[in-house]
Records
---
Amino acid sequence: MNPLSWLGIRRRGLSPAQQQRLDALPAPQPLDDTPLDDCRFVVVDLETSGLNVNRDRILSVGAVVIENSLIDLGSQYECTLYQENHRVTESVLIHGIAPSAVADGVAPADALLDFMDFAGTCIFVAFHAAFDHRMLQRGLRDELRHRLRHRFVDVAELAPMLCPAGGRRQSLDEWQQHFKVVNQQRHHAAADALATAELMLILLSLARREKLETLADLDSRLRHWRRLRQARIGAM
Amino acid sequence: MNENDKFTQAGKTAVMQNIQGIIGFLLGYPPFNLMEQGHLAWLVEHAQLRFFAAGDPILQPQDGPVQHFFIVKQGLIRGERVISGNDEPDTTFEIGTGECFPLAALLGERATRTLHRAAEDSFCLTINRDDFVTLFSQSMPFRDFALRGVSSLLEQVNQQAQKQASETLGAHYSLDTRLDSLIGREPICCPPETSIRNAVKQMHEAGVGSIVVIDPQQAPAGIFTLRDLRALIANDAADLNNSIATVMTPQPAALPSSASAFDAAIAMTRRHIAHICLVDDGKLVGVVSERDLFSLQRVNLVHLARTLRQAESIQRLRDLRSDIHQLVDSMLAHGASSGQITRIITLFNDHTVCRVIELSLEEHGDPGIPFSWLCFGSEGRQEQTLHTDQDNGMLFSAASGAEADAHRERLLPLARHINNALAECGFTLCKGNIMASNPDLCLSAQEWRDKFSRLIRSTTPANLLSSSIYFDFRVVWGDKRGPEQVFAEVLRQIGGNTLFQQQMAQNALLNRPPIGRLRDFVVARSGAEKDTLDTKVQGLSPFVDGARLLALANGISVTNTLERLQQLRERRVLDPQDADAYIEGYQFIQLVRMQQHQQQERDGKTFSNRLDPDTLNQLDRRILRESFRQAKRLQASLALRYNL
């Protein structure tokens, strides 16, 4: 008997097959001196039942891979998750995933295993990555009792760092406009992931121009930029 | 997995949102809009998306054999070639959204010869060479496009032009004729077991070029033509006692007898065949040959020409003008090039002018002084469209200035009569008074010689403008030798006068093609002409002026722009590839202009050369832009040649 079952959080045991898959998941990519061009980036976009990272759940996962500084369109991930007791909230108006689609979805444990398997040894990339990072972390913990150790790069941070001319842009829409990236279907997990990936390609090209060659270069530059920004905000 | 399974597999993953999105994008552009959905899905799944910042090189000659096929998803790619003596590389082409590259290098398994550079931030879809080859072998429209590139697009444009024109052809027009009204006799046919010898004998006796082999139900089983016979005779092992069934072409092309002559012409052209079986309810009812159709067209052309030459009055000539308009419609429908059409129009205009002169001589009385009728400008270049005005003059011989004055005195009233009669026939009177009735243009050979020498020696702006009109010079009626001697003298003088050439070059750069630095058309910003550009002044003039200058400077006496370019190509004054590109560009702009005139004619509007590029479809816009760019390149090469 699961002592936490009264909380309503599902912590069913994993099947031996699932456990085996979990154990076989590849290690995350460290922020080391791997050249940016050789790194596998998985651009992820999650559509969720809401914006509360402690309560809302993942409804669908879309992911696009960047390798060798190009997007391989043949290797994309797209999955709608089955969630029990899924209630329709106002966010359905944003992501447009109908309750029927959720009911047809894949069991979350399997979906997340599939996804982590697909992601492999990679750096995750997202727009406002903290949210996707947190949601994925919680999903993996709840469904698989797995600790997410993958590193995340935030396009919402990279963009103003590498393109100060972009000014005080905040949202994915604004940055898409700035870089004139066309997104046919905003708020569809896969389409948003592709649009974010296209931004990432532009940013990688800018990074190359600034002689940022490795993951470590990028990371240290990001830390430096964060400190500067903090200092600037502090001074104001 | 065999190829077919792969494509079915592709169909399944095609439900993926992003794949769908990109397929949707590709469907907006040729040749992808013609490809099967499964092939498109396969393409996208095997594609990568790459980003190139403005200025990044994408493909370079030193990279070795090309490894990828590129489709521009967003942005602009420039082809650059370095010309010796030029600091800035020459932009040889621009590739915009929805277009692809490099076809020739990929097919030739070689490196690109042109540096491809991103002109602005661009995203490209790429597929690797092996996948390109797979797609090439699987998809017909893709193969067609890859092999023939833009010319396959031009063909599409022509097909559209044909369709538009054929829709407006009246029911009386001959190509709308039903095929059953064309077949005069019973079809020549035989059963499959007939010997080859007997079948050929039957053809010979009937005097026909083909025999249809029919089964007991009278359905055509095959066809045997004189061409097949030729191949048979060339084959030593052939035995004429074998059955005709062993040598016939099975499943001959067939149409119902209710189909039109136009259907048959299209079917023949498409399949490169000269005979079509007419089959009703599964039974052979007749055969139509290529000759049946072409005789039909020739009647129209030849008949119209003859009627013009024999018209008994100016009134009749005027009535015949509408027939010429119809002929242009039908020629567009037959996919004639703009060059062919303008030549035909000029031909009919020449017939009209000659007949007007003859009728005028009858009505007005012959002054008894031999003269030649000259024409200048577009008429001189044989490039008239339906929208045309008069540019003409008279040349006669005179021993002295006094004699010239006396002759002029007697010829001028006749010239006036001719000019007015031409105006009645639809040739608008020239606003600038470049007409034979102007005493300055009714001159003796010596006076013309002096006039032309003055133009060449003193290059005032007015004289340069006159040069650009008078040196497109042709004789329409009367003795040709005298005027040609005068023109030969002109060529000799220009060839030795670099100052004149340079001034002409400067003039040829005045009309700038209406494209901006990047990709959009430059259109008028305000007024009645808002959002439009001038196809004649901005599009055609750069070609016409450039070709004129180079031809005159190099002693080429033909005046037609296409012929001038052709001869400049032969004499290597122009690089053959460049010359071909100029010819295609010029012809396309002319075609667009003519289609517009035909449309204006049908709508009862006044003729205008102003075009709103937004009214063109995607394909036409793209080719028009490319054509204007060729005009720009021609001007750039003139500037280089004459150090401007």
Note: Residues 1-15, 165-174 of chain B have pLDDT under 50 and may be disordered.
---
Amino acid sequence: MFNYTFQWRQALQKLPLLLDGALVTLQIALMSMAMGIVFAVILAVARNSRSTLVSAPATAWVEVSRNTPALFQIYMAHFGLGSFGIHLSPYIALLAGITFNNAGYLAETFRGALRAIPGTQLRAARSLGMPSLQAFRLVIMPQMFRIAFLPTTNQMVWAILMTSLGVTVGMNSDLAGVTQDINVRSFRTFEIFAIAAVIYYLIAKAVTLGARLMAARLFRY
Amino acid sequence: MIEIRNVYKSFGPLEVLKGVNLSVEKGEVVSVIGGSGSGKSTLLTCINGLEPINSGTILVDGVEVHAKTTDLNLLRRKIGIVFQQFNAFPHLTVLENVTLAPRKVLGMSKAAAEEIAVKQLTHVGLADKLSVYPGRLSGGQQQRMAIARALAMSPAYVLFDEVTSALDPQLVGEVLDTLKLLANEGMTMICVTHEMSFARDVSDRVAFFHKGVLAEIAPPDQFFSAPQHPETREFLSNIR
């Protein structure tokens, strides 16, 4: 009817290559989340600062990362910075772009979570003689992470899917890059992309499931 | 010794403390009573430096609380405070709530901190709740835990800020009993309270706070039977 013969066997032979790509995808997503969370905590706190010098750059970061396409952010990290003579490899540019994006979104999630914690918690901690940083780390942050946990999981899934944008800056070792490579050499477009899509789906599902198990272990109160 | 000298404090245009003077000796229990919004609670948070003051001085063992050179974190180790709203740390068990500051602030070993915590929690009747999270405790139990948490730092002074006001009536007694126990052991305490019988039975002196000043301060017998200030008389007649 469509004059297209499925060649699943031929496509499936490429599965090991795709799985190698999936590993790179997962690696980038995990690293971008780890760094994104660190930056997001700093941004969330900085945005609440009374000093404009501290809050303005944080606000700018959050505004740009949330209100421009992730594709542009990755593009900027590779080609944009390249114009100024800062040359990031596709891998690093992709990682930087997604980290930038993650940090912006998570900063807002964390800021909301911070607001949900009564101010009296900090007062109680300070009253026990804790310096502000220690009080934040030991009393506020654990509560913040619990409130922000599910939205953070969403961002992790989003980070995995965002890695596919790497192909636009020449990334060829992640799942999307490998898929694209195989596609242009074999023209089994439907099969290859379908298999890759299933792999993305399974990774995303595994992350959600893993997060749920982690939450059950971590948050017993 | 806590010495409060001519302290003024405003929140924006609202003047809460208007020249407060009060000295509390070691081992003394002072109850502070007065209407809502009279500045009682604010005074307590000024004593441990949580709130800045506009003028005047507060000295704790001779150290000026609001001096720029004062290490507040160090000073707060010897001033325990228990709040109206308990402020239990929800992500930590009862035992962890109490050991947190001794371990992280005083740098005690886990074992040493736990020994102290268990002793204090036993003292307030929570020995069987060590591994429970605060969310599973009643209000009275949470408040007793908060008392144990303050005491685990071996403070020289403990400030109680309306510690029974957020409790169901049937839970008030258990917390007041804990306070009485401490008072009898010679702990120096300032208790902002609405519990007149507690103020009468336990305190060495009772202070009446009115419109940002201490209108009257006297031993409980005299305070309740022969109040001098007309506002004190009015307040006492209203609550009787």
Note: The longest helix of chain B spans residues 169-184.
